[in-house]
Specification:
By secondary structure, the protein is of the alpha/beta class. It has a six-stranded mixed beta sheet, with helices on both faces. A five-stranded parallel beta sheet has the order 2-1-9-10-11. Helix 2 runs parallel beside helix 3. The radius of gyration is 19 Å and the shape is elongated.
Length: 235
């Protein structure tokens, strides 16, 4: 089977390699590129922990000039992958919600932090996590760490393959990626005549922007394992 993988690098290549090892073809076509915006100065104050909703934060904080005092703080990570990367980056007390943002809120509530949490995150976020925590009496200091920017258009090869019906499915890992892919499709095919094949999204929220252009299937749980299991068994 042939899949178009649209997530940003380096995750795009990691996912593609995983699919290839399973005996299938994976074409890498990132729809977003990462631009660091963190800067050298982090917010000052006494924090009770770090909130991490993306593994990209680990690399940004790893060698940050102010990271040393932060490494004694517990980390509340949304999933196992982001938790693993934070451990590799030097954090020892890392707790994974292994799921969605709702699971992450529950994990933090169970810990009952006594001081504000530091939340390095993307400029554009699908979920307002800080408000969800605030509603439950937990203060969260948001700092923009990076921005995800759309690519201008699909590559020539991807555009040609889509037109030819080459792919068995398109993999979508976030709402922002879906929006970027939809924009690229509209540039390529303003009239909407191009038949788009199956789209496999990591969640209903992630796949929603493409619902009017494709048959969108959402994973039962927001993990890569659930998404790949869906894609490989639905095609």
């Amino acid at each position: 089977m042939r899949f178009l993988v649209t997530r940003p690098q380096p995750d795009c290549h990691r996912t593609a390699e995983r699919i290839r090892k399973l005996g299938h073809e994976a074409i890498e076509e990132p729809m977003l590129v990462v631009r660091e915006t963190l800067g050298n100065a982090l917010p000052e104050g006494l924090f009770a922990g770090l909130v991490v909703t993306s593994g990209r934060v680990a690399e940004l904080l790893k060698n940050h000039p102010q990271s040393a005092p932060l490494k004694s703080l517990p980390v509340y990570a949304v999933g196992n992958r982001s938790a693993e990367l934070m451990r590799v980056a030097g954090w020892e007390d890392v707790r994974s919600a292994n799921g969605s943002s709702r699971d992450l809120v529950d994990l933090i509530l169970a810990a009952s932090p006594s001081a504000p949490l530091l939340y390095p995150a993307a400029r554009d976020r699908a979920v307002d996590l800080e408000s969800s925590l605030q509603e439950r009496g937990i203060s969260c200091v948001l700092v923009e760490a990076y921005a995800m920017e759309q690519v201008a258009a699909l590559s020539e090869s991807a555009a040609g393959n889509l037109a030819a019906g080459y792919y068995d499915g398109v993999l979508i890992y976030s709402r922002r990626t879906a929006e970027a892919f939809l924009h690229a499709l509209q540039v390529l095919d303003p009239e909407g005549a191009l038949p788009l094949h199956k789209v496999f999204a990591i969640s209903k929220l992630a796949g929603k922007p493409l619902e009017n252009r494709a048959c969108v299937y959402a994973a039962a749980y927001p993990t890569e394992e659930a998404l790949l299991n869906l894609a490989l068994n639905r095609v």
